[in-house]
User: What shape does this take?
Amino acid sequence: MHEQSKAKWSAVLMTILFAFATAFPGSSIQADADFSPGGTSAEVHNHSLTSSELTNIQLLHPNSTWRYLDNGSDQGTAWRTTEFNDSTWSVGMAPLGYPVSKTTSLFGGIRKTISYGANGSMKHRTSYFRTAIYVSGLADYTKIIGTFGMDDGVILYVNGQEVYRYNMPEGEANDQTLSSATVEEPVTETADLTQALRGVLHEGVNSFAAEVHQRSDNSSDLYWEMQLIANPAGSMNMFPAISCQK
Ligand SMILES: [Ca+2]
Assistant: This one.
């Protein structure tokens, strides 16, 4: 096989393995020895589903593992794409950020502290995060809700398409873009992503890419975590039960 093709297929294979490790944490396929979430795994739909099996399907559970890049480099736009090879990025369990004392009542304290660089008054403005999920039974998903823990601003891409933006100015962002407003403490937000994900999410492996932006160069904190639930029971203003917190 051509060397370039080999490299590309190797990257695709790594993404698939990473998605399986994230979706099925009890499996023997693990991307990281440090990976030990207690979360509910995504469900595989190979049979007729009962109504209870059709609710609260965790497509991306809290404490998932994410690849992250915290070296202050400008990643342009290629990093958002499904094909991007992130195998050289670091790996950690969400919530990710700094300092370790930061927390949200929904997701809890930071599990993986990332770097802001050598200068505390000139921190990296943008940090990059990627993960992948395995989706099966998409036709059964009538509603998909995202819940987010964030500080300060975020743009989220699924399979290269922007599907969610919080506390960021309009238009294209780059690594020097600051968030729109200060977030004093990490916030929790819920968003109905059903429309945004229509035609974007597909059966099989789906890539998630998030850029988290600071409000200022000396901002003290950063926080990133999210979960994605299909067919949540009850109102979208009620957080679905989470079994991943310890
Ligand atoms: Ca901040």
Remarks:
- The longest strand covers residues 126-135.
- Confidence is low (pLDDT under 50) at residues 25-46, 236-246.
- The helical segments are 3-23, 194-197.
- The pocket of calcium ion is lined by residues 151-152, 214-215, 219, 221-222 (CB under 6 Å).
